[in-house]
Amino acid sequence: FADGMDKYLDYAMGYNLNNPMPLWIKPDQKISPKQVFDAMRDHYEGTPMDMTTDIGAGGSKLPYRWRPMNFEVDGVSYVNERATATQQTGFWFTAQARNYLPDAVGGILWFGVDDAATSCLTPIYCSITDVPECFREGNGHMTQYSPTSAFWIFNRVAQFAYLRYDYIGAEVQKSADEWENAKLKEVLTVDNAAKGLSLKKQKEYLTDYSINTAQSMFNRWVELDQYLMVKYIDGNIKVEDENGFVDNGNGKNIPASPDQPGYSEKWKRAVAADNGDILRVVE
After folding, report:
1. What is the CA radius of gyration of the chain?
2. Where are the beta strands (DSSP E) in the chain?
3. Do 94 and 183 touch, CB atoms closer than 8 A?
């Protein structure tokens, strides 16, 4: 958001603690809500700390390292990066305050659950008087799965994406982008419809909108979970066209030969170096 931040790279890398980054920065230009959403999905991509590029990312460029973050090899201590987007997120949000609208209309919490990089945000107006079922307290918990809980469906999708992040993660982010971009436009219409109502009617209207929209998001992710399972089962990638999954010509229940893109080049070289004597094809 601001030029010149690279001068703090030595601090971020832990090399120079006498050059601390400022707690706040002023963006060079006005930023959009969507830019803020996406900033919370960062894994240091494009920097020396990019978590998708070293061997710890595995063969699918996974930008996560499971806990514990620190480890030791031959007496030398190491620590994995802690990115902005992280797997153990419970919930996340961006607050949008518009002082040019009535109080009941002007505040929106763009709210989501689980990992920011594999979930999406839905608009929750600040004046609502009820909670969507998918977010309701008591609808499942950390040791009890609930098929109607947003927390659990977003975790299901995230867990699957972690298995083949370079492909599945990209599909999940595409779905999140489509949802958020559509809702950012939609709330402008909702704002206009609500601002002329009485306070009581505003609360009723915005409560209904927030609840119905959140439940629609939940339903969309249930569908996404099912679609991803069918498409990426067993490490293969089913072929699609504009009509859906392609069959092999002998019936819709028999898919065409799937794509099998394999692992990253870096991963293949690491495996060859580590276990090449066993895996090498004997001529």
Report:
1. 23
2. 70-73, 76-79, 91-97, 107-113, 122-125, 240-241, 244-245
3. no
Query: Residue 5 in 3-state DSSP?
Result: helix
Encode the chain (283 residues) as per-residue pLDDT tens digits.
899 999 999 999 999 999 999 999 999 999 999 999 999 999 999 999 999 999 999 999 999 999 999 999 999 999 999 999 999 999 999 999 999 999 999 999 999 999 999 999 999 999 999 999 999 999 999 999 999 999 999 999 999 999 999 999 999 999 999 999 999 999 999 999 999 999 999 999 999 999 999 999 999 999 999 999 999 999 999 999 999 999 999 988 999 999 999 999 999 999 999 999 999 999 8
Q: Are 43 and 83 in contact (CB under 8 A)?
A: yes
43 CB-near residues (< 8 Å, 6+ apart): 50, 51, 52, 63, 64, 83, 84, 85, 117
Look up residue 282 and give its two tokens.
């004997």
Which sequence spans correspond to the domains of the chain? 1-30, 91-235
Compute the distance between CA of residue 195 and CA of residue 209 in angstroms, rounded to an integer.
14
CA angle 229, 53, 24 (to 5 degrees): 100
